[in-house]
Amino acid sequence: MGTGPEPALHLVATPIGAARDITLHALDILRDADVLVAEDTRTLRRLMEIHGIPLAGRTVLAYHDHNGPAMRPRLMAALAEGKSVAYASDAGTPLVADPGFQLARSAIAEGHKVRAAPGASAVLAALTVAGLPTDRFLFAGFAPQKQAARRTFLSTFGRVPATLVFYESPKRVASMLADMAHSLGPDRPVAVCRELTKRFEQVRRGPLGQMAEEYAHETPPKGEIVIVVGPPESERHDQEDIDEMLRKALENLRLRDAADAVAQATGLPRRDIYRRALELQDEY
Prior knowledge:
EC number: 2.1.1.198
Domain RsmI HTH: 238-281
CATH architecture of the largest domain: 3-Layer(aba) Sandwich
Order of helices and strands: EHEHEHEHEHEHEHEEHEHHH
Strand content: 15-25%
Main location: cytoplasm
Shape: globular
Strand order of the largest sheet: 3-2-4-1-5
CATH superfamily of the largest domain: Tetrapyrrole methylase, N-terminal domain
Family: Belongs to the methyltransferase superfamily. RsmI family.
Protein name: Ribosomal RNA small subunit methyltransferase I
């Protein structure tokens, strides 16, 4: 096998827009891997051409939702033979809203190594430019297409104390924003990120209600869409509530753990909760 990548399933992140947004590590793997696999074989071949990486007699195998069950045994056999298998998503990081999940899980189940060649991700790119909190976030993927199911789906995230990230089709952005305003509240801040890292990249920010109204009266946009919604405002807790929560937590937890638990439950700064926990502990 020469000096190529180690025998393993290598999950290779590919650009979501600009072809230069690929790592040197990823290019090395694509150049030297024994077996090349892609969600879209044409996209990977084109990317390799741009970067001057020859196929060198290798065939790019297709692996996607429709042929996964039939293709996985073939790829597992290649791994069992000690070959290096590189899997590239259509765009972005494999396993993030991507059919590579079952492939990686099968490799792990059969005792093969799984390695990452990290890189571009629409989720992280959107969080970077949204201007919303990033210390805690939840990626929720695509919402259901029908309104009733979509509203139910969205309502489950209403009180999650984190920034929310969704993928959406351009033709459903207006209805998605309307249902978000209904289920999450019209005042929640949102950033609608379109065509990230591409020529016509656009980020629009504002309250959900306002953004839903704007998109309702516009022609549906074109391109890939990521919607980022800010976390809910922390619930108001008076000092007596906080003290009671801390006293109960201190009955079973160490001071630091009690402070962490109450800070997470209230959304208040941990340093303030920790300082108050110290004061309460001195009472005992």
